[in-house]
Amino acid sequence: MKIAILSQDASLYSTRRLKEAGEAQGHDMRVINYLRCYMNITAHKPMVVYNGQPLENFDAIIPRIAASRTFYGTAVVRQFEVMGVFSANESQAISRSRDKLRCLQILAREGIGLPVTGFAHDTQDIDGLIKTVGGAPVVIKLLEGTQGIGVVLAETHQAAKSVIEAFRGLDANILVQEYIKEAASTDLRCFVVGGKVIAAMKRQGAEGEFRSNLHRGGKAEKIKLTPEERSTAIRAAKAMGLSVAGVDLLRSDRGPVVIEVNSSPGLEGIETATGLDVAGKIIEFVAKKATNGAPRDRIQY
């Protein structure tokens, strides 16, 4: 089977592991820098061109789209979909998950546990916005932030007002969420592939750091999920339309709450913490679906 990994950097751990796992299973694997692709958009013969050559006869693609390149990256994924190529995650699902506000609204509609969250554009009623989520301490997030960047813990009401005013002064869109104190600076990363949780780890924030992201110095270890946590992760991925997803949960006093659904979850942390061949599981899923000509509804753009 001929499979393309859409990634800006072939040397990244996740990209390398997917390529190695695919080749180990006998597939023809290619890494394609999607930013260097251009598209011929036509009803007669749509195509994606890379280094001057049309990308033809691919059975499947695995998108590894950077958050900062979502618009162009999903356009390339969408073009492959127009060409009838199976994608591990559909373009619309990637776009949906990258919009944090839209993601939370979809999860709320499905009745999935979430931190109490406020969103506003005007700063005139900051006090009311903070009270909406239960008062300080609160977590303030930039909608466009990734890997813990643009996430601030405001421990007092005045600190929260100052941060919100600063972000809004930059015309940035922000979310204000309740602080789940009982989570104790830990979260759970649940790796979902094909509607099943295939691996899970607990991430602990570095000393003095409430964010548990491994990019921020956090540590990870293998964890056994409760049935409710497993069900929540699967439901969250399904609600977003993602076949491959990293679902981040917090353990709250009222049960698991989802803080993020990632459409291009990194493999290094989860494989190191669990010792599992996550890349191999992704390749197996993609190959099976592409071989069976996985039925899909008509893509809604």
TrEMBL record:
Q: How is the cofactor bound?
A: Binds 2 magnesium or manganese ions per subunit.
What EC number(s) does its UniProt record assign? 6.3.2.-
One Pfam family from the UniProt entry?
Rimk_N
The positions annotated for binding ATP are 141, 178-179, 187, 211-213
Report the sequence similarity comment from the record.
In the C-terminal section; belongs to the RimK family. Belongs to the RimK family.
Record bears the keyword Cell division:
no
Ligand binding (Mg(2+) 2): 260, 262
Gene Ontology biological process = SOS response; translation
- What cofactor does this one take? Mg(2+); Mn(2+)
HAMAP family documented for this protein? RimK (MF_01552)
Spell out the GO cellular component terms annotated for this protein, sorted alphabetically and separated by semicolons: cytoplasm
Q: Which residues bind Mn(2+) 2?
A: 260, 262
Q: Name one GO molecular function term.
A: ribosomal S6-glutamic acid ligase activity
**The ATP-grasp domain covers which part of the protein?**
104-287
Give the UniProt keywords, A-Z.
ATP-binding, Ligase, Magnesium, Manganese, Metal-binding, Nucleotide-binding, Protein biosynthesis
Amino-acid positions noted as binding Mn(2+) 1 in the UniProt annotation, renumbered to this chain: 248, 260
**Binding locations of Mg(2+) 1:** 248, 260
Q: What is the protein name given in its UniProt record? A: Probable alpha-L-glutamate ligase
